[in-house]
Description:
The complex is a heterodimer of chains A (182) and B (246).
Chain A: H1 3-12, H2 16-26, H3 33-48, H4 56-74, H5 84-90, H6 105-111, H7 115-122, H8 127-138, H9 143-150, H10 154-180
Helix pairs in contact in A: 2-3, 2-4, 2-8, 3-4, 4-9, 6-10, 8-10, 9-10
Chain B: H1 3-15, H2 21-33, H3 35-52, H4 62-73, H5 76-80, H6 86-99, H7 105-116, H8 125-136, E1 155-165, E2 168-177, E3 180-187, E4 198-199, E5 206-211, E6 214-219, E7 224-229, H9 233-241
Antiparallel strand pairs in B: 1-2, 2-3, 3-7, 4-5, 5-6, 6-7
Amino acid sequence: MGGDDRAFLEATLPYLDVVWQVARHAAGDGLDPEDLVQETYLRAYAAFGAYRGENTRAWLAAICLNAARSEARRRRRRPWEVPAAALLDALPLARAGGGEAAPDVADVVIAGLDAQAVSRCLALLPEPQRVAIVLVDVAGYTARETAEALGCPRGTVLARVHRGRRRLAQLLADAGVAHGRP
Amino acid sequence: MDGHDRDHRLLAGFLAGDLDPAAARRWDEHLLACERCWRAVREDRAGRHAAQLLRQPAPPGLADRVGFAVEMAARPDARSSRRARPGRAVRWQQLAGGAALAVGLAVTLLLVLLAGGRESGSMPAAVVAVARYAQAVPPPARDQHPHPGGPAAPVEVGRPVTVTAGGQRIVMRTWRLGSIEAVVAVSGQPFPMPAGGQGASGGGMAWSAQLGKLGLYCLNGRTSELVAAPVPAAELAALATRLPPA
């Protein structure tokens, strides 16, 4: 292995796990997340000579998202799109019982969490909120890093994350409750 | 920005710990009295908790795959050629899957592979990837795993490595057979025969080639298999029969 590729891998491989989190949720149907990770690293390697940034994590996230969008455009399909019917099929049955009063959204969500249902509900969020949640809550980026990766103010990231989390909780709760009704 | 948006941003700032102590205290007090905002806080936490469920460690072998792909890209000849995009392999597989139903595919494939399918003046990227990987495998120590009384059973060494080269997705495993370590590469697409290769027995779409000390033996089919080991190519067909099926 030559010097530049070794230097590149030493600088970027420690972030493989976070890139993987982003890729898993950024890869559209038919695109293997592992292929997207590889493509991300190849694009990053091609640009590494000119890279002067200070935050490699944020840089890799931006490349991964761009690669996913390029691929989605190529396939003429919106990324992360999941039909609503698939969501309903996948949601867990809500617990039976309950009185007239609507249950608290937060309680319903926390009690019946299922990673597959969460993933499908996440896919229903508007893209800006979805991307912000994936970067901050799933991949563990800070709001500042996310802002750098997305090229928007940090306050915008916080607002998107907040709205997205609330919407995610409501989607999970609403669909779960609807399924559980007699 | 309307009042609703401002409230959202302030609450998001409060939850992120952005507010100064006095403003944060005012929010704390507000939350005690305002059911709507308290619900928003609880939903925020529930959504965050749900999203965090989606964390999953990277699969084992992904770092090896990325490292190998970067090493391949670092080769001087790779820099000058356009890299394959990730979706290309999938698109090819879809096309190949449909085409497999058509009568005469085998004949077509045979013609492509054995006559016009080779890249003139250069090795096919998929074959280069396998050959370079095999060349990077260190030879086993001489006294390792003696096998008196018969041929050694194959032992897998390390973990499988997956790469995409020339738009072709390839899974490579390394097997130790006595004093030989052989790389077995499996792909859903055929491995094109390199210049200098020749058709071999073992099937209508088999070929073998010699790259210095490295022998290559390929059996193309629905699942294609390329064996690479530091032995004469003529011996690889027999060696391949001792390896576990792909």
